[in-house]
Amino acid sequence: MAQYVVTGRNSNGEGICSVQIGAINQDSQVVADLDVVAAVRNLLAGAPGVVGVQAQKFEQVITNV
Q1: Separation between Cα atoms, residue 6 and residue 15, nearest integer Å
Q2: Pairwise CA distance, residues 7 & 15, whole Å
Q3: Is the alpha carbon torsion for 32, 1, 36, 46 positive or negative?
Q4: Helix (H) / strand (E) containing 45
Q5: CB atoms within 10 A of CB 6
């Protein structure tokens, strides 16, 4: 699974709160990863002082040379 960082930013563009999602544990896929990220984005968007929210996805890529 990819890792996600969702950051709430103030009017100056500074990050004032951040949530890192490193794992979503499910027996079988009940909720899609992006639905969880969207829910966190919506939560941060309603926080006091937050005027913008950014979500970033990080994936590890392994190559053999």
Answers
A1: 10
A2: 6
A3: negative
A4: helix 33-45
A5: 23
In degrees and rounded to multiples of 5, residue 11 shows phi and psi of: -65, -20
pLDDT digits (tens, 9 = 90+) for 26-56: 888 899 999 999 999 999 999 999 999 999 9
User: DSSP secondary-structure letter at 28?
Assistant: S
Q: What angle do CA 42, 16, 14 make, to 5 degrees?
A: 105
Q: Are 4 and 56 within 8 A, CB to CB?
A: yes
49: left (phi over 0), alpha (psi -120 to 50) or beta: left
- First-to-last alpha carbon distance for the chain, in angstroms, is 23
User: 17 near 45, Cβ under 8 Å?
Assistant: no
